[in-house]
Amino acid sequence: MTTESIPTLRWGIIGTGLISSWFVTDLAIDRPNKKANHIIQAIGSSSTEKGQIFLEKHLPGKSPTVYGSYDELYRDADVDIVYIGTPHAFHQQNCLDAIRNGKHVLCEKPFALNEFQAKEVFDEAERQGVFVMEGMWTRFFPLMLKLRNLLHREKVIGDIYRVFCDFSMPMDIATLPPTSRLKNPALGAGSLLDIGIYSITWAILALESEPSPKEPRVLASQTFRDDIDIANSVILSYPDGRQGIATCSVFTKTPSSFCRIEGSKGTITVDGFAASVPASFIVTQVDQEPKKYEFERPGKGFYWEADAVALEIFAGKKQSDIMPWAESLRILTLLDEVKRQGGLQ
User: Fold this and answer.
1) In the chain, where are the structural domains located?
2) d(CA 122, CA 277)
3) Could you report the per-residue pLDDT of 49-81, keeping only the tens digit for each?
4) Is residue 3 pLDDT above 60, yes or no?
5) What is the dihedral of CA 342, 243, 281, 309, to 10 degrees?
């Protein structure tokens, strides 16, 4: 569908938790520079009652169809694409079910619990001929696109040698019920998959202009409590000496300057509430005054990835240029190695 010379995408939302609420609220924002129209066509929940509560709270005045099961949403002929906002452990099955019903898919990060699961999903997407993407939304922020241009095309700080990134957030896990996705190992609980993936992503995007032909060597340490990882320290060591130091923890709050990028001609510091939602960065070149770049962000910023998905689908693509399948697999391969070294089951 197209209206106003821009594509229109009809979304089915799977899961009615916090991340799904942020997503639908963002898509409802009327933006003057939007690249696509987004319609929340249907909501799928474990019960009609839960779905109706979600609708009334987060989409007042809207009238999507509310289903009391995911399968009903997958079979809805008016749904073009399924957004999957369920806990990590359900991503693989949710993706497969949607794909086998002929739906395009945008699945929240981490795309799956491991590289093996993700490959199964992408193989099925290729067989069915549908578009599938991991929802690593931060990669689509104008800030990130501008930063990577300055780093890798304009080379404003020269050759990049080292990146530090931390994403720590107090989660008070001890007080959470055993059923919480942040505490239940069966749901993929732990800091690595939830927030550590952002620290590693920042290190890779800052250090590499393109995916490295030789994967960095991974040196990792994990700390556990109640069978989940509560802190991770990861070093990505490249053959030429570049280093990415990525950390995460559930105990403290990262200062606003969560990332530092060091090059031969200067440094860049990135600021924001967290590594997932950068707001600005400062370029400090040798012997020059620092220059600050700030970016407007109505709402949370999920619409940027949604716009990109719509444009790529209507261009006939099955993968994203910014977040292709190979990149999701590579990130999960690195995370699998962190888990192997740390002992995470």
Assistant:
1) 8-137, 142-296
2) 27
3) 999 999 999 999 999 999 999 999 999 999 999
4) no
5) -60
